[in-house]
Design a protein that fits this description.
It contains 27 helices and eleven strands. By secondary structure, the protein is α/β, with parallel strands linked by helices. Helix 9 runs antiparallel to helix 15 and helix 20 crosses helix 21.
Length: about 650
């Protein structure tokens, strides 16, 4: 391999390190917050500032024999400005601006308000003289340095606090670095990010090299862009000393004039980021969002598929695998800002060796946030809503590939089947179809519609309606039943019964249409399971009826491995299963009960992009929630239900359609 090929392989490897470092950063920050590490270090740093050997026991501030230093410590954390930064009584704040910290510390130590301190210089000295050592000597030295001016004293206290944060950052770093390594090793193992293997693949696959280099150039040319740019700039600045471990501070704090303003921030330790009060109010994680954005670019290098065969491996294989994973985990200790800077330098060297203005021009025009990555149809995530008018462009009934136009149309029909018969029959002609079927609910029966056009026939099943007990009973009846039309296969008993109760009328409706029309079957939720079973039944029992395509949305598992294998054999390339991000329904009934899925997965990720058959590790990453409190956890649970709505599916696909038009 020539020097340029080696450089390309190195760029690809660094890009992987960068993406994985973002994931590790997000996970470590989440763990750090759950453990309250910053609050604990804040307590320890405050105790050391006051001259205490350690953190006083909780509640000791109320005892009569407690010293002035312990009383000052408890007064500090009982101050309203500090209490306002706490998320709960049990957890100390993880972030306090330096100006606020210095002012509250002065009030707690002297037992005076800031206005009283500024108004009575003589009293300030007297109060300091009455303090215990070593706080007395420290504050007297600062007061002398301020020439007895109380206003300047507050500024000197700020500088004193900032110098303490340098040591506190080391305490926090010692807590976090082992955690970063362990999380990095777990992430590397989960996605098979073996450095040795990845480098070997890159040196052999020149097409993969070029694809990763293009992503790296796009990333470097835009400097990150948007959320990613904010994350990297803040983290890089913190690592260069722009901020302290727990309270905001300015660059070169020693040369700053006391009392000047600064931008609040917190130090970025290797593999982690700071949390400001505004961050704490959000559920989103910038690093995780950025990792999701670029994870699919490096997906060809990751994953265990193809690297794990059911054969015996020699001991050298295990040794090489462990070494490769340890190298990756060690590399992730450097953090995302380091690898981003390294990536920019390597891209710059490559461009100097072989300038490619056309590539750079494309990168500048597209930008990193356009979402136009191979195999992806981008589009911002919608929030659902009422069904719009007919989608455009037109439905392609003879298509044999997974086209977003057809998925969009099928989502409309899967939504329309939830309406009453009169509404659906009125909407059908506007879309160029004549609608029939059974849409008015009677008892526990199954609802469906049949839409007929000149060259197309669409069968859509209604899914679970929250107000209908029969639908819930069908969903919950997860016992196994022998499949009547496929010997040896088993199906979900509730879904089978729901199909059986209307199968005769469904079959009559299909046969009444012209035989040369392309038949498409679709449904959402329970309707998706019925659509799949109906398609399989037609293939097994009605050989004269050919199904052109099956599209389901939020479909639950509905059969065992034997049934699903037969579906895959009969409908290869004609069965598409659309899954929207955190939708919980495709994950039930549980895999451990023997239920299985198949089909071509059209996955709508957290960024609103559609990806065909994404790797499992990417779907886990895309679904990963890192809730910071109970409210965030409840919102994450609620989102899994909201993502299941058919209007949400339609909205995401419609937005993707607009983006790619």
């Amino acid at each position: 391999m020539d020097a340029l090929g080696m450089l390309n392989a190195l760029i690809g490897l660094v890009l992987v390190y960068f993406v994985l470092s973002l994931i590790v950063s997000a996970v470590v920050e989440w763990i750090t917050q759950l453990c309250g590490d910053r609050g604990k270090v804040l307590e320890l740093a405050t105790a050391r500032l006051l001259g205490l050997d350690g953190v006083p026991a909780r509640g000791s501030g109320a005892t009569a024999c407690v010293g002035t230093l312990e009383r000052a410590f408890h007064s500090f954390f009982a101050h309203p400005q500090i209490q306002a930064l706490q998320q709960s009584r049990e957890r100390k704040p993880s972030y306090v601006p330096t100006g606020t910290y210095a002012g509250v510390l002065a009030e707690a130590a002297l037992g005076m308000s800031l206005s009283a301190i500024r108004a009575a210089p003589a009293l300030v000295r007297a109060k300091i003289e009455g303090l215990a050592e070593p706080l007395r000597s420290s504050l007297l030295a600062l007061l002398d340095k301020a020439d007895g001016d109380p206003e300047r004293l507050i500024g000197e206290i700020e500088l004193w606090v900032e110098n303490t944060w340098d040591r506190a950052g080391g305490w926090l770093r010692r807590r976090v670095i082992p955690r970063v390594f362990l999380v990095g090793l777990l992430v590397a193992t989960a996605v098979n990010a073996d450095t040795v293997r990845m480098f070997q693949v890159l040196t052999r696959d020149t097409r993969l090299q070029e694809a990763l280099v293009q992503t790296a150039e796009r990333l470097a040319a835009a400097g990150g862009g948007g959320t990613l740019d904010d994350v990297l700039c803040a983290a890089t600045a913190r690592q260069q000393g722009v901020s302290g471990a727990l309270a905001g501070r300015a660059p070169d704090a020693g040369s700053r004039s006391p009392g000047t303003s600064r931008t609040p921030a917190a130090v970025a330790l290797p593999g982690e980021r700071s949390v400001t009060p505004s961050d704490q109010a959000k559920d989103s994680c910038p690093e995780m969002d950025a990792a999701r954005h670029y994870a699919l670019d490096v997906a060809p290098l990751l994953g265990w598929q193809g690297d794990w065969e059911p054969a015996e491996f020699p001991p050298s294989w295990y040794v090489g695998k462990v070494v490769g994973l340890l190298i990756t985990a060690s590399a992730l200790l450097m953090g995302a800002p380091f690898w981003f800077d390294m990536l920019k330098k390597l891209v710059s060297v490559r461009q100097s060796l072989r300038p490619e203005p056309s590539t750079k021009k494309r990168a500048a025009e597209a930008g990193p946030d356009d979402g136009k990555q191979p195999g992806i149809v981008p589009g911002p995530t919608g929030s659902g809503g009422s069904l719009p008018a007919a989608p455009s462009p037109a439905f392609m009934p003879a298509a044999s590939s997974c086209r977003i136009e057809n998925l969009l149309w099928m989502s409309r029909w899967s939504g329309l089947v939830y309406d009453e018969g009169a509404v659906a029959e009125a909407q059908g002609p506007e879309w160029g179809y004549r609608v029939s079927g059974k849409l008015d609910a009677i008892g526990n029966d199954t609802q469906y519609l049949i839409a007929e056009a000149a060259d197309t026939l669409i069968l859509a099943f209604r899914g679970t309606e929250p107000s209908r007990l029969g639908d819930w009973l069908s969903d919950l009846d997860a016992d196994w039943a022998d499949c009547p039309w496929s010997r040896g296969a088993r199906v979900h008993e509730g879904f089978l019964n729901a199909l059986e109760c209307e199968w005769v009328s469904v079959l009559e409706g299909i046969r009444s249409a012209a035989a040369d029309k392309a038949l498409w079957i679709t449904g959402h939720s329970l309707g998706g399971a019925l659509a799949l079973l109906a398609a399989h039944r037609l293939a097994c029992s009605e050989s004269d009826i050919r199904v052109q395509g099956v599209v389901t949305f939020g479909q639950p598992r509905c059969g065992d491995a034997r049934l699903i294998e037969d579906v895959q054999r009969r409908y290869t390339g004609r069965y598409w299963r659309v899954v929207n991000n955190r939708d919980i329904v495709p994950r039930v009934p549980p895999y451990l009960m023997g239920f299985r899925h198949n089909g071509t997965v059209a996955y709508l990720d957290d960024l609103g992009r559609m990806t065909i058959d994404p790797p499992l590790w990417y779907r886990v990453l895309d679904n990963l929630d890192l809730p910071r409190d109970k409210q965030a956890l409840l919102r994450a649970v609620a989102e899994r239900g909201a993502d299941h709505g058919i209007t949400h599916y339609s909205s995401v696909l419609a937005n993707a359609m607009e983006r790619t038009a």
